[in-house]
Amino acid sequence: MSVRLDETDRKILSQLQQDASQSLDEIARKVGSSKTPVWNRIRKLRDAGVIGAQTVILDPEALGFEACFFVLIRTAEHDAEWQKLFLDVLKKRPEVQEAHRLAGEIDYILKVRVKNARAYDAFYQAMISEVKVHNVTALLSMEEIKSTTALPV
Prior knowledge:
Pfam families: AsnC_trans_reg, HTH_24. With 153 residues, this protein is an alpha+beta fold. Helix content is 39%, strand content 18%.
């Protein structure tokens, strides 16, 4: 369900996506409003589920996580029990930054961030020891060209 946004809401969301650590005064100045109305709008957007948890974006390479793999998974299993086990395995693995169920020949794609190829192999071995998959293809990202969490509001 989508929420109706006006131009001021969009400006506020754009500012928050750029830098959520900005003060209310800064955001209000940039969107052409004052502090209290901006705060009320942000509160309403949170209550409506438009704004989720606020986090900090870390630089993976600065922390030694230099390898990013996109893992394509095909499975012969499609029953609810297997899917629950698979999802539980993924959720407890901190290396998995994203996981998507797909339409088409590939069933799942994972974004896995690790320190190096050896760490990826340890992740892979642990995953396949816990859940049966038909086929796994790992693609190493050579260069991150664009990465954003911002939506085009």
